[in-house]
Design brief:
- 53% of the residues lie in helices and 7% in strands.
- The chain is mainly alpha-helical and 137 residues long.
- It has one domain: P-loop containing nucleotide triphosphate hydrolases (Rossmann fold).
- Helix 4 runs antiparallel to helix 5.
- The longest helix is centred in the C-terminal third of the chain and has 21 residues.
Length: 137
């Protein structure tokens, strides 16, 4: 990616599996929770992580889908100094993006177009609601 070359599906499989397995190891070691961040742009990438509760039935898993128009993200990336992620990489990610569908009920969708402080409030509200719903179930 530092050379402006997008990752392929083949580049991602072992990495996604490793992220899932390490998250499960952390939970098994006593962590109260794990926040895993990655760009799971395609449904099949999310599915690699999504199987975690099959291995550990007490795992509650949700994705937070951060989205904004391409123009907003291009403008933000353009303000970065010395970062490997250039505008061409943003475009390549939008080209392969498969936004979550309605049947992906484990996805919390967050519009990140606004200021970071508002996004944080929105994320915390929606995540807290999901945790509360899960505890009540």
């Amino acid at each position: 990616m530092a050379n402006g070359i997008p990752l392929t599906d083949a580049d991602r499989w072992d990495w996604l599996t490793l992220l899932r397995e390490e998250s499960l190891r952390q939970l098994a070691s006593g962590a109260e929770g794990v926040v895993l961040t990655c760009s799971a742009l395609k449904r099949k990438y999310r599915d690699v992580i999504r199987v975690a509760p099959y291995y550990s039935h007490d795992v509650l898993l949700h994705f937070i889908y951060l989205h904004a128009p391409e123009a907003v993200l291009l403008e933000r990336v353009g303000r970065r100094q010395g970062h490997y992620m250039g505008a061409n990489m943003v475009r390549s990610q939008f080209q392969i993006l498969e936004p979550p569908t309605a049947e992906e009920t484990d996805v919390i969708s967050i519009d990140v177009s606004g200021p970071a402080s508002g996004v944080l409030v929105d994320v915390l509200d929606k995540v807290t609601k999901k945790i509360t719903e899960a505890a009540a179930a």
